[in-house]
């Protein structure tokens, strides 16, 4: 596994370590009587890869959508750098299974891009041959690469990826995470992604945020994966996998990421009134 562009230090410039691209403070979202997010503080800095992990229904997609501005906070606020350009790979794309749709058309459906740009994006995600393929005939891994191409075509400053490796086998997942790492360097963008498989992702990320409606712990992958709350939910096997698949990217990170923070009460469901566990 080669580290892409290992000589390029990140974050990209000192001022970016000070002013985040996006910052959520005390973010809470309730739907009906359910608390989906509860007092989440999270800053996204230029050039970093943040991975949000957590069990089903923990609020990961809701947090991603809130950071993008697609969900309104019930409490707290989210600051976004003005004119911020984002790219989004959604968890589900609702496409009419009856209508024929080529990859080329999918990539230009909502935004105009030159044929050269479309071809370049497909080449970057290593599926240049799929330009004229029908979307409905793509494999899971091909579809995720096409959706990644669609997201990077917008030259985003922040790339939001909601489970980018779903439907992809284990070896394919590692390749895809490597590709995401390369995209981050090539496009100089931050990446915020959700993963269901903390085993694989930990080595490709600068910072892991372990979410269970609130942030249970956050920090560098090797620290979070040893956190008692993390081990309680994902099991000790996670730490073992980390040893198998480890990158050694030599770049700097914002200082706040240097240690795991936080403590989770997710094993004490009824601890707080109005908690989502109640
Ligand atoms: N509009 C809504 N109304 C009521 N509940 C909702 C709504 N949207 C999401 N939820 C609930 O909020 C919880 C968090 O959903 P979310 O999709 O953010 O979780 P997640 O961590 O991404 O889950 P998964 O890993 O299964 O994709 C879920 O229990 C979901 O059913």
UniProtKB/TrEMBL annotation:
Signal peptide: none annotated. The keyword Translocase applies. The keyword Ion transport applies. Pfam families: ABC_tran. It comes from the Bacteria. Residues 22-237 form the ABC transporter domain. Keywords: ATP-binding, Cell membrane, Ion transport, Membrane, Nucleotide-binding, Translocase, Transport, Zinc, Zinc transport. GO terms for molecular function: ATP binding; ATP hydrolysis activity. One of its GO terms (biological process) is zinc ion transport. This is Zinc transport system ATP-binding protein.
